[in-house]
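Hey,

The postdoc asked me to send both predictions to you directly instead of through the lab channel. I've kept everything plain text so nothing gets mangled by the mail client. Protein one:
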Amino acid sequence: MNTTRRSILKASALSAAGTLASPYFFHRTAQAADVIKVGVLFSQTGGLSIIEKSLADATLMAISEINATGGVLGKQIQPIVEDGASDPKTFNEKASKLVIQDKVPTVFACYTSASRKAVLPVFERRANLLFYPTYYEGFECSKNVVYTGAVPNQQLSNFIPWIIKTLGKKKFFIVGSNYIYPREMAKVCKVLIEQNGGQWVADEYLELGDSEWGSMVNKIKSSGCDVVLSNVVGDSVVAFYREFKNQGLSHAKLPICATVTSEIEIAAMGPEYAVGSFTSFPYFMAIDTDANKQFVERYRAFVKNPKAVTHHALESSYFQVFLWKQAVAKAGEAMPIPIRNAVMGQEFNAPNGHVKIEPANLHTWLTPRIAEWQADGQGKIIDTYPAPIMPLPYVAYGETEKNLFCTGKGLDTAKLKG
């Protein structure tokens, strides 16, 4: 069956409504049907839709490809698509609808940590399962979430030392959007900056979606910093980089080094505003492998846009559906707890390379990379780890591979410091 994006979206609109059920009733219902229903919950509207529409598209593309090859357990996957509208409260309401009314056993959802925190109680109370595709700040240990984006040791533990030792920049101005992810990432940045002999001269925030960056850029100019560490998110990234250049600042002298800026924000702002700046991610569109080139071609065909770009959270949104499929096949059923147990240790050759779900903490082994943005809007990859590394969501608190804080038994709070 050759499932198109349009037919998937149409199918999602025809999903049947259900009634309030016990945590396990809807699992049996999902099993008994001739399809396996899943939720797809990202922002189709609002300021974060600049990113999140592409995450929904990548999820639907993976579902389409799986359905075209026979589905899973002999059943087709039926996505039920909802709009989080760039609002945590709406995310909570839509997650509740998917879990309670639509009775889905798994939801692929969320971009921001604010939206993830908003939906988490729904999944934990109902013994349901969330697949979360975004790089995030760590500091979370849930048995009801599979985390497929980078955590700080896969994005900052390589980046901060590289900035100091390779770029020779030691005075950091940390800037971000005012919510959980940027503030928590700043804590990790400060630890790593100090450990590597640098210093941070400021830690400043504007509200998520803010487009007035004139005053902030003036602060940067007068701060005495020699590098900007950006945790700015969403369409604010576009406004920030444009104001940065409009005020005469040059990435050659004062580079922005970002944890969020990806191909999609570069395309939205215009590449000329980002040339010479840097980002750390496990995935870039410029990865020079046949597997990635084919992935990009398939994605462009799926969204019917020959100029569409791919990026880290999009790529994670794609490959996590295949990890889910493998787990369902192994479990022999689509109930959340068996899927969670079966996904532990699952491996997949993703566009970014080999990935694996760490059994101890349900996070993903990924390969850290650093790229410099070019005039064509692509990141030139200038630093790559030789192999995927273990995810350590509590690295800022001293977590190591031999001393895990988050395990199958839960979070060992006695190990937390500060």
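Protein two:
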Amino acid sequence: MGRTPDSKENAMSLHDIFYRFPKEFPLPFVLDGATGTALMAAGMPAGVCPEKWIPEHPEVLCEIQRRYYAAGSDAVLAPTFGGNRLVLERHGLFDCAERNAALASISRGLGAGLVAGDLSPTGKFMRPFGDAEFDEIAKVYAEQAASLDPYVDFFVCETNISLAETRAAVTGIKSVSNKPVFATLTVDKSGRTMSGDSLLCALLSLAELGISAFGTNCSVGPGDMLNVLEPLVPFAAGLGVALIAKPNAGMPQESAEGKKFDLDADSFGEYAPKFLEAGVYVLGGCCGTDDKYIKRIREAVDAFEPLEEIPKKDSSLLVCNTKEVAEIDPARLPEPVAADEELFDYEGEYALVRVMGMGDVEFLRDNAAMLPCPIVLCGDRDLCERVIREYCGKTIYWE
């Protein structure tokens, strides 16, 4: 079983640094391993809808999650990954609230530890690269989160491929619940999402929305994941947001028995102390991992003594879009510019944009993702707040 928050003398010092992480949860914190690949290994046919199959075979999920708790997981993720309305409807399921409640109740019924509501991407792309509106996607996540809220201790919004949808997800969850929200993106070896978002920009942006923990899951093995997360540690410490690593069991390889991952539990477990030493304190496993992998993580966590001090970086004057970060120099602010077509040719590190009417708001909503640099806002404060709500990055209102 997992530790209690006061099981080590240094537990509170980590909570003081990562102050947005729930005080009632232990830190370091151990999540579970894979659900999808574990279900398939236990007999779930390939290609079926897990959210339909699991209620018909609840004993299979219960056995998987009992093993995770026994191996040392502080929490398991309820089997609600594809439980948002848009995904369920693609499978001909139109009982979103009832199905999510039933699925989360299976994990809650084990009574063995913390349970997270698991939320996945909707499969929709938001404007200007798709036809989905921010409020539309936020509502989808709000619906799912509201149905999960009575059964879970926190939410994990995971396997995200774009910062834009992740922002909508967090906004939707927080509109219906005060429980902690963790967010993870899936990235390549360079640390970019499929949409080209940088992890630092995502961290800065999502921290503004009040997440408790941030990181990556799936796509890559632990070595590549460590490489992309380690540079974020000083920023995360400055923001008070704990970092999450939930890597795959290495990379998939074809074999006579089918697809296998190239790291066994012992090889995977060798990375757990490295994550902890780097300052990444929320650990678990994704595709290809099982309870044996989680046991190795728990062993590393129980043997770990945190560093006396973690370097922090102040990000209060940083702004970003999805790909670039700039630092504001209050003594050398650029001249304000209008929210119009000339912004596409702007050549500074960041632009100070004047917002005075709804036309300015609409221009920035439609075009901010395509501007050549991050922006800072000035002008009508209420209108600027409308821009900030949907801005895909981090911006600041400047008096």
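Summary for protein two, as requested: Residues 134-148 form the longest helix (15 residues).

Thanks,
C.
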